[in-house]
Design a protein that fits this description.
This protein has a five-stranded antiparallel sheet, with helices on both faces. Strands 13-12-14-15-16 form a five-stranded mixed sheet. α11 packs across α15. The chain starts with a helix and ends in an 8-residue tail after the last helix. The longest helix is centred in the C-terminal third of the chain and has 33 residues. It is built from 26 helices and 16 strands. The structure holds zinc ion. Zinc ion binds next to loops. Zinc ion (ZN) binds next to loops.
């Protein structure tokens, strides 16, 4: 394993132009150097070396990277061999040790293997002597051995390197565990440490039942109480519903899904036999989660903690479900209570009764608003309408919307006609308006690939731009898999601070993503006004992503139509309408 500072020193001390000039005749061309590419056959030089960014990139074959990457490719060397070759030129000493790959990225399968390995390790640890406290905690809370087994509960030892050491013995490199969000590079030093320590571990699965990430809960009162894996290539949080692979057959059977917030809320109701249950892993559902759910049922009951059952912002999130044509009901638990404590208090039958007696979301909101605002005053009426009319506007089913208008008019003692006029003034947001056949010509996306590279380049060049990307672009807006992978690697480091990001940027330049990174930096180099280019990129990327979604949906509609599946066709057209109107919340 080559220590990170050694790699950094080599990058800093060597000049890429000098090193490459030792292999190829370079010609100056403006601020760059040009050569005939050694990696593909060509007559006009399209191989460029950039001294400011210290990278090379071939506009012909796309190969690129930093000085280490060049030597690896030209000399056909592995990373540690390239380091050993370059170290004397840089006057840097490489400590002797067992060779191993550095922060070498790999594909989803290797990540999957890493998280699966960790899940097994945690699960076994729960039943070993070190796991006694965690076991006792679960037993105190009445969690049975069968539930522990079914939910693959585990324990992360209270140590800095249990997973790292076990992983290394099993041939899983620290860099891979880091990419899986399971270990973290040390601040200002070399090496890594385990992210999860002394925690009860809940594996989080994707809808196929493959472990994607983890949630960890402390056993005492220390903070943070819950710690979750960061988003990775295989852990796409906006799509995941905890427990869905277990619940799926039961959701179909009941034609109903109950949604709680976290995995701890899931545990006791699940154990009591409430099986049509998932956890959203957040207080509001994402559009992607809703799309996943509606494959199973259109009937949803949300069980909210007493503490946020009264939060309008949370309830507003449910409008998304309404506009998907889902029927939504809400169980608002008393303050201080959560699904876990409620299930213990009322038992299985009581919990089923809570679900059965849940209020329609509209009625629930109305009840809440009437407590907050006085419906007898004009101000009260205005406030209540301001909150509820947009909700009604979202309901695609006309008779149901009409019923809501009537109920609201009744509650506020105003004329229905006045409400309808007011309703018509609200801009349409994601409401399907009758049978309509979407048509969209297929064609090449508008230069989105370049926009994605440029955006990546801008962020690599100045990681302060990352915050903007994080808020304005979703990972799945990016069509180019290597660009997306590079962004995900930055995202994983972003929470660790600027130094970790800077390290990640350096590592990217000679990792498997080196070529894409070099191209991105090259694009960035040709851009003067970064802030404006950034706006432009984001707009183009989102436009292209939207277009892709529309085309995909159109294909689904055609498939459903030719299969003669009328209800499915109608549902898909509704979804298409929503995409057209841009109400998809993943656009942010
Ligand atoms: Zn080339």
């Amino acid at each position: 394993m080559i220590p990170e500072p050694v790699v950094r020193q080599i990058q800093d001390r060597l000049d890429i132009v000098e090193v490459i000039a030792g292999y190829l005749p370079l010609k100056r061309a403006g601020g760059h150097y040009k050569a005939v590419c050694p990696f593909h056959s060509e007559k006009t030089p399209s191989f460029m070396v950039n001294p400011t960014k210290q990278i090379f990139h071939c506009f012909g074959c796309g190969v690129g990277g930093d000085v280490i990457s060049f030597v690896m490719k030209y000399e056909h060397l592995e990373f540690p061999e390239a380091i050993r070759l370059l170290a004397p030129k840089a006057g840097v000493e490489v400590p002797q040790g067992r060779d191993g790959p550095g922060a070498k990225p790999s594909d989803g399968a290797a990540l999957q293997q890493a998280v699966e390995f960790a899940a097994g390790l945690f699960q076994r640890a729960l039943h070993q002597p070190a796991g006694a406290a965690a076991r006792a905690y679960l037993q105190r809370r009445g969690v049975t051995a069968a539930s522990m087994e079914a939910l693959r509960l585990g324990y992360a030892a209270d140590s800095w390197d249990t997973l790292l050491t076990a992983g290394q013995a099993a041939g899983i490199a620290p860099a891979m565990l880091a990419r899986a969000g399971l270990c973290v590079p040390r601040d200002g030093a070399t090496g890594w440490y385990d992210r999860f320590r002394g925690r009860l571990m809940f594996p989080v699965w994707d809808h196929k039942g493959k472990v994607a990430g983890f949630g960890g809960r402390v056993l005492d009162e220390s903070q943070p109480k819950y710690l979750n894996s960061p988003e990775t290539e295989i852990y796409l949080k906006s799509r995941i519903l905890y427990g869905l692979h277990l619940a799926a057959p039961h959701i179909r059977e009941h034609d109903l899904v109950a949604i709680v917030e976290g995995y701890v809320d899931f545990l006791i109701p699940y154990q009591m036999g409430i099986r049509h249950l998932v956890a959203s892993m957040g207080t509001s559902l994402t559009a992607d989660q809703v799309h996943v759910l509606r494959r199973y049922t259109k009937r949803v009951v949300i069980v909210y903690d007493g503490d946020y059952a009264g939060e309008l912002a949370t309830l507003r999130g449910l409008d998304l479900l309404l506009s998907e044509g889902m029927s939504v009901r809400v169980v608002g638990l008393p303050p201080g209570e959560d699904p876990d404590s409620a299930a213990r208090r009322v038992g299985a039958d009581g919990f089923r009764r809570l679900l059965a007696e849940a209020d329609d979301v509209f009625a629930y909101k109305l009840k809440l608003l009437r407590r907050r605002h006085d419906p007898a005053t004009v101000e009260g009426k205005v406030a209540i309408c301001g909150e509820l009319l947009p909700t009604i506007k979202r309901v695609p089913n006309a008779p149901q919307a009409s019923e809501y208008v009537r109920a609201l008019a009744d509650a506020l003692k105003i004329r229905e006609e006045d409400l309808r006029i007011e309703l018509s003034r609200i801009p349409v947001k994601g409401v399907g308006d009758g049978p309509w056949r979407p048509r969209l010509a297929a064609g090449p996306p508008p230069a989105a690939a370049t926009a994605e590279h440029l955006l990546l380049g801008i962020v690599l060049d100045d990681p302060r731009y990352w915050a903007r990307v994080q808020t304005d672009v979703a990972a799945d807006d990016l069509a180019d898999a290597p660009v997306r992978a590079a962004f995900l690697q930055l995202a994983a480091q972003a929470e660790r601070g600027p130094e970790a990001v800077a390290q990640a940027v350096q590592a990217l330049k000679h990792g498997e993503l080196a070529s894409v990174v070099a191209r991105a930096l090259m694009e960035c180099e040709r851009t003067d006004d970064k802030a404006r280019a950034m706006d432009d990129c984001i707009r183009r990327i989102r436009g292209a992503a939207r277009r892709r979604k529309l085309l995909a949906k159109q294909a689904e509609i055609q498939a459903a139509e030719s299969a003669g599946d009328e209800p499915q066709t109608t549902a898909l057209i509704g979804e298409y309408n929503q995409l057209v109107k841009g109400s998809d919340s993943s656009w942010r």
